[in-house]
Design goal:
The chain contains 28 helices and 21 strands. Helix 26 links the parallel strand 12 (702-704) and strand 13.
Length: 856
C-alpha cells in the first residue's frame, strides 16, 4: 500500500507529462498516519454497520432466509470447502442434478485467495466475515484509487481565478484530500448496489464488486508512469476479480476498464499528440487482461467448457433481456422506497429490487452536480462518461443498442440482467461525489457560480418538495396510486419477477405502499434541505473546515445507514439443517440413492448432508440434463431451467435412482401408487419411491439412435425398459438379450468407492454387456476397466456406461477434465514467470529512477 503511494514523479524517459496523473512527488503526499487513521475509520464503520454478526454467538448468516445465500451459496461453500478440507479437490459435485461440474461452475470460487477463510472458520462465521471484509475492502480500494489521482494542476486554477473570481485559489491542492476520499469510500461501501446484495445473499457479487477500484488504480498508475510492473499487478487484480466467482460482474468490470482506458488515452493524447505513448498505453489494457486470464486459466478453461455444454450456450434474446434496468427505477436515486422496501411492503416494481435500485444518498447527488457542472477536470469527465455509458448499458432491452450488443459483441449473449451495470454507475457517482466534496473543501468556487448553484438547487428542491407534499402528505395522489402501481406492474414480465401481487386493488396493500413511499418522500425532502444547508455552510465558511467535514460525513453515513441497515437481516442456518431422525433413516439405507426435495428445504440443501439430489439450483445446468428433466416434467424441451425440481415421478425419474421424496413446508408431489410414506413430523415428510432403479446396473443389449427428438420418443415409449436395453448414440454390435433366468442369477454391481471425482464399482457379468452408472455424462469422465482405460459411452441421452466382457471386473470412473489440467498448467506457469519478471521490472525502474535523480 505504502509502495504504491510512495512513487516518485519521474520514471526514467517514459514519463514526460508533468500535469498528468503522477505518483507522489512531495513529502506531504506520502502515505501517512492520517491515511491509516482513515482506513481504521472505514474498518470501524464496517464493524458498526454489521454489528449484529460481529460476535458469532449462534448460527445466524447474513441474508434473507429466502435468498440465494440459503439456497445456493451456503450449500456451495459448505460442500466445496468441506471436501477440500479432506484433501479432495471438488472438481465434480455428485449431490446435485445427478452430478454436475463444481469448480467449472465459477461460483464455487475454490481458488479465490480470500476464500481461505472458509478453511479456517465455521461456515456461518466465514460467510459473515467474508461479507464484512469485502465491503470494507471496497472502501479501502476506493480510498487508495482516489488518493492517487490528480485533478487539474494548480496553475489552471490560478488562471481560472483571474477570470472567474475564484475564492482562495492558494488553498487548492491537485490531489484529493483524505476527507474527500473517505466520502467516496463510504458512499461506495454502503450504496444500494452493495447493500441490497447483502440482503439477497449474493456472496460472489460482493466479492467481485470490490476489485473495480483496485484495477482502476493499477491502470491509472500504468497510464501515467508507463511502467509495465503496474500492468502486471493490474493483471493479478483482474485474476482475483475473475476467481471471485461472478463471471458476469467480471465481464462488466472489463467493459468499464476498457472504457476508462479509452477515455484516459484520448485525454493524454490530446495533451501531447504522442502516438507511440498512446499505443503503449493501449497495450497496457491488453497486458492487464491477458495476465489476468492466464493467472485464472485454472478456473476459466473449465468454465468455458461447461458453458459449451450448459443451458447458457444458446440463450435467446428475450431471456437475456430479462432484468434490464427499468427507466422508471431511476427514481430510486431520490426515493429508494418508491416501489416498496421488502420490509414493510413487497416490491411492486419490475423485476427484483436488489438489482433495480441506484440509491447513493442525497448529499452525494448534490456533490455530483457540483463536480459535473462546475469542476470539470479530466476525472470528472471520465466518470461522467462512465456513469452515462453504464446507465445506458444497464437499461438493456429498453434501448436499441442492446440488440446490437447481443448479436455482435461476444459475452452479451451469455448473461441476463444488464441492470447489474448499475454497480459501475454507483462507483462513478461515488467518485464524482468525492471530487465535488473537494471542490467545496478547497473553497475555490466563485461567488457567481455559488449564487447560481444555490438559486438553482433551491428552486429544484422547493418545486419537488411542493409536489411531494401535495401528492403524498396531503394524500391528493392516493386516488392515482392504484393506477401507477398497476401501470408499472403490468409493464413487467411475470416470468422474470418474483413479485406476485395478485390483488392490486387491495385497500390494505395500496395504503401500506402509499405510506412507505410517502415516508420516503418526507426523507427526501428533509435530506435535500439538510444537504443544501451543508453546501451553503461550505460556501460561506460559516464553520471551521474540520467541523464541516464531520457534519458532511455524518449526514452521508446517517442517510445510507437508515436506508440500508434495514436490509441487514440474518437467518438461522441451523434451522434449515435436516433433523437427525430423517438423516438416520436416509443414511441407514445401504444402497446409493437419490432424493428430490419439495418446499423450503431447497434442492441444494442435500449436498450439506452428502445426499445426492435429482434436482438442484445451479447457474450452469448441463443442457442435456435440463432437456431430459423437461421431458420428464412435460415441459418444452428447450425451456431454460436453473432451478431443477420434480413434481411427479415417472419412468425417467426412476432411471435416475430417485428413491426418496423429501417434503417440507410449502412443497408437494403428485400422488403415485409407487410412493409410500416412510416418516412424518411437523417439519418434514419422507416418502419412498418403490420403483426407483439402482444407481448402477448391467444391461446386455443396446439400440443406436441419433438426434434428441428420436431418443426422447424412444425413452417415453411403452416398449422402453432401461433394464433390458440402453440407448446409445454411436454404433454398437451388442444387440442380443440374455434370458430372464440368467438376468436373475447375475449379481448386482456393488460400489467400492463413491467420492466426488471417482467412482469404483465391482461387477460380475454372465455375458458381454454394459455397466450403466446413473450419473450425468460429461466430457472428462474416463473409465478404467481392470486398470485399462476404456471409452465412456453416452447412455440414455444423459447417463454413463462402459462396455464389459463376460467375467469379473473392477471399474473405475475418474473425472479427469483436460480443461482443468491445461488451465492448471497455464496458471502455474504464468505464476512462475510473473514473479521474476515483476522483480526484474521493479529493480530496473528503480535503478533508472536513481540514475535520473543522480544525473540531476
Amino acid at each position: 500500500m505504502k509502495h504504491v503511494l510512495h512513487l516518485k514523479s519521474t520514471y526514467g524517459k517514459n514519463y514526460y507529462n508533468p500535469h498528468a496523473l503522477s505518483p507522489v512527488s512531495s513529502q506531504s503526499n506520502i502515505w501517512s498516519k492520517s491515511d491509516w487513521l482513515a482506513v481504521l475509520i472505514l474498518f470501524l464503520l464496517s464493524l458498526a454497520y454489521f454489528y449484529s454478526v460481529i460476535i458469532p454467538a449462534d448460527y445466524h448468516v447474513l441474508g434473507d432466509e429466502n435468498s440465494d445465500m440459503r439456497n445456493q451459496y451456503f450449500c456451495w461453500r459448505y460442500f466445496g470447502f468441506n471436501t477440500l478440507s479432506k484433501g479432495i479437490l471438488p472438481l465434480w459435485n455428485p449431490y446435485a442434478c445427478c452430478g454436475i461440474p463444481f469448480i467449472a461452475g465459477m461460483q464455487s470460487a475454490i481458488f479465490y485467495p480470500l476464500n481461505l477463510i472458509f478453511l479456517i472458520l465455521p461456515i456461518h462465521t466465514a460467510i459473515n466475515y467474508s461479507i464484512i471484509l469485502h465491503v470494507f475492502l471496497s472502501g479501502v480500494f476506493t480510498y487508495l484509487y482516489l488518493r492517487f489521482i490528480k485533478l487539474n494542476p494548480k496553475s489552471a486554477v490560478v488562471r481560472l481565478s483571474a477570470h472567474d473570481e475564484v475564492q482562495n485559489p492558494q488553498l487548492y491542492s491537485d490531489r484529493l484530500s483524505r476527507s474527500s476520499c473517505m466520502i467516496s469510500s463510504i458512499i461506495f461501501m454502503f450504496c444500494a448496489p452493495q447493500m441490497f446484495h447483502v440482503y439477497a445473499g449474493h456472496l460472489t457479487i460482493l466479492c467481485a464488486i470490490m476489485w473495480l477500484p483496485l484495477i482502476l488504480l493499477f491502470s491509472e498508475i500504468f497510464i501515467c508512469a508507463n511502467n509495465i510492473l503496474y500492468a502486471l499487478l493490474g493483471g493479478v487484480t483482474v485474476a482475483c476479480n475473475i476467481l471471485a466467482g461472478q463471471p458476469q460482474y467480471s465481464f462488466y468490470t472489463a467493459i468499464a476498464i476498457f472504457v476508462y482506458f479509452i477515455i484516459r488515452i484520448i485525454q493524454e493524447f490530446n495533451n501531447h499528440r504522442d502516438w507511440k505513448s498512446a499505443g503503449y498505453r493501449i497495450s497496457g489494457f491488453l497486458i492487464i487482461y491477458i495476465t489476468g486470464f492466464l493467472l485464472s486459466a485454472i478456473q476459466l478453461l473449465p468454465a468455458f467448457e461447461l458453458t459449451k455444454h450448459s443451458v447458457r450456450h444458446t440463450l435467446s434474446y428475450e431471456w437475456v433481456g430479462h432484468f434490464s434496468f427499468p427507466p422508471e427505477n431511476f427514481i430510486t436515486l431520490f426515493i429508494p422506497e418508491f416501489f416498496g422496501n421488502l420490509v414493510k411492503t413487497p416490491y411492486w416494481g419490475r423485476y427484483l429490487l436488489w438489482e433495480m435500485s441506484l440509491y447513493v444518498g442525497i448529499l452525494p447527488l448534490m456533490l455530483c452536480a457540483l463536480s459535473s457542472f462546475y469542476y470539470r477536470n479530466k476525472f470528472t469527465k471520465t466518470f461522467l462518461i462512465m456513469a452515462l455509458t453504464c446507465s445506458i448499458l444497464a437499461l438493456g432491452k429498453f434501448t436499441p443498442f442492446f440488440k446490437i450488443l447481443y448479436t455482435f459483441v461476444p459475452g452479451f449473449n451469455l448473461f441476463r440482467g444488464n441492470s447489474k451495470f448499475i454497480f459501475i454507475v454507483a462507483f462513478s457517482l461515488s467518485v464524482l461525489s468525492g471530487i465535488g466534496a473537494e471542490y467545496l473543501r478547497n473553497n475555490i468556487i466563485s461567488k457567481k457560480t455559488a449564487s447560481t448553484f444555490l438559486r438553482f438547487a433551491t428552486g429544484i428542491i422547493s418545486a419537488l418538495s411542493l409536489f411531494l407534499f401535495i401528492f403524498f402528505l396531503f394524500r391528493m395522489g392516493f386516488e392515482k396510486w392504484h393506477y401507477i402501481i398497476n401501470k408499472v406492474y403490468l409493464l413487467g414480465d411475470p416470468k422474470a419477477s418474483l413479485s406476485n401481487l395478485e390483488n392490486l386493488k387491495n385497500p390494505e396493500f395500496l395504503s401500506a405502499t402509499f405510506k412507505v413511499t410517502a415516508t420516503g418522500a418526507v426523507k427526501f425532502i428533509i435530506l435535500s434541505i439538510l444537504s443544501l444547508l451543508i453546501v451553503c455552510l461550505w460556501i460561506k465558511r460559516s464553520l471551521k473546515r474540520h467541523i464541516l467535514v464531520l457534519v458532511s460525513v455524518a449526514l452521508i453515513m446517517g442517510d445510507l445507514w437508515f436506508f440500508g441497515n434495514q436490509y441487514i437481516v440474518t437467518f438461522d442456518s441451523k434451522k434449515y439443517m435436516w433433523d437427525d431422525e430423517t438423516l438416520d433413516l436416509l443414511k441407514n439405507d445401504p444402497e446409493p440413492f437419490r432424493i428430490t426435495t419439495a418446499g423450503y428445504a431447497g434442492p441444494n440443501h442435500s449436498m450439506v448432508h452428502n445426499i445426492a439430489n435429482i434436482g438442484g439450483y445451479e447457474a450452469n445446468v448441463i443442457k442435456e440434463y435440463s432437456e431430459f428433466m423437461n421431458l420428464s416434467e412435460g415441459k418444452p424441451f428447450d425451456d431454460l431451467r436453473i432451478l431443477m425440481e420434480v413434481t411427479h415421478i415417472s419412468k425417467l425419474t426412476n432411471l435416475l435412482n430417485l428413491k426418496y421424496i423429501f417434503i417440507s413446508r410449502g412443497g408437494g408431489i403428485e400422488d403415485h401408487p409407487a410412493i409410500k410414506l416412510v416418516s412424518k413430523n411437523p417439519k418434514y415428510a419422507l416418502l419412498k419411491n418403490t420403483m426407483a432403479l439402482p444407481r448402477t446396473f448391467i444391461v446386455h443389449a443396446s439400440k443406436t439412435l441419433q438426434g434428441r427428438d428420436v431418443i426422447f420418443k424412444e425413452l417415453v415409449s411403452r416398449e422402453f425398459n432401461p433394464l433390458k436395453y440402453i440407448i446409445l448414440e454411436e454404433p454398437s454390435t451388442l444387440v442380443k438379450n440374455v434370458d430372464s433366468l440368467s438376468l436373475q442369477q447375475e449379481p448386482i454391481p456393488t460400489f467400492l468407492e463413491y467420492s466426488p471425482n471417482k467412482v469404483t464399482i465391482k461387477a460380475t457379468l454372465l455375458d458381454d454387456g454394459y455397466l450403466v452408472l446413473g450419473d450425468t455424462f460429461y466430457p472428462g469422465w474416463n473409465a478404467y476397466v481392470d486398470g485399462k482405460k476404456r471409452r465412456v459411452l453416452k447412455t440414455d441421452y444423459i447417463l454413463r456406461s462402459v462396455f464389459l466382457e463376460k467375467g469379473d471386473h473392477i471399474v473405475k470412473f475418474v473425472y479427469e477434465p483436460k480443461s482443468f489440467t491445461i488451465g492448471m498448467i497455464i496458471t502455474l506457469t504464468s505464476m512462475v514467470i510473473l514473479i521474476p519478471v515483476s522483480i526484474f521490472t521493479a529493480i530496473h525502474h528503480r535503478n533508472a529512477r536513481i540514475s535520473t535523480e543522480t544525473g540531476r
